[in-house]
Design goal:
alpha+beta
C-alpha cells in the first residue's frame, strides 16, 4: 500500500494514555484539520511505515511526504500543523539540539505507562472523527 506524498499520518501507541492525550491535543489545536491518525498496533502502520524502521517505535511517529520522523523530530514536525502559539513553540524547539531533545523524549517514552497509565484497547474515535483515523 503506497503512501500519498501529500498525506501526513500520526502513528501513536493506541493503548497509551499519554499518546491518546496527545492525539486529542492535536485534534483540538490543528490549524487545518488534515492530519490522519493510526495506531502503531494496526495494519496501516505495518503497511505504510514499519518497513522504514529497524524496530517498532516506542511512541508517536510522524509520516509526512514520504519521510518518517521519530522522537522529538516527530513532535516538532506535528507542531507545524497546529495553531499558534503551539506552532511557534514547535519552531523554537529546533533551537534545542537533537542530542539533548531525544534523550528527554526517550525518558518520557520509557516511563509513560507508569506515569500516565495504559488502556485495555486502542482509542475509538467519535463518528465525526472516524474518517481521520486509518485502520
Amino acid at each position: 500500500m503506497a503512501t500519498d506524498a501529500a498525506e501526513a499520518i500520526v502513528f501513536f501507541d493506541g493503548v497509551c494514555n499519554l499518546c491518546n492525550g496527545a492525539v486529542q491535543f492535536i485534534l483540538k489545536r490543528e490549524k487545518n484539520p488534515q492530519l490522519k491518525f493510526a495506531a502503531l498496533q494496526g495494519e496501516t502502520f505495518r503497511a505504510r511505515a514499519q518497513h522504514l524502521l529497524a524496530a517498532i517505535p516506542d511512541s508517536i511517529i510522524f509520516l509526512e511526504a514520504g519521510i518518517l520522523y521519530t522522537e522529538s523530530d516527530a513532535v516538532l514536525r506535528i507542531s507545524r500543523h497546529l495553531r499558534q502559539p503551539w506552532r511557534a513553540m514547535g519552531f523554537m524547539g529546533y533551537a534545542i539540539p537533537r542530542f539533548l531533545r531525544n534523550p528527554l523524549y526517550r525518558f518520557i517514552a520509557r516511563n509513560r505507562y507508569r506515569w500516565f497509565g495504559k488502556k485495555e484497547a486502542c482509542y475509538v474515535p467519535t463518528p465525526a472523527l472516524r474518517a481521520r483515523f486509518l485502520e
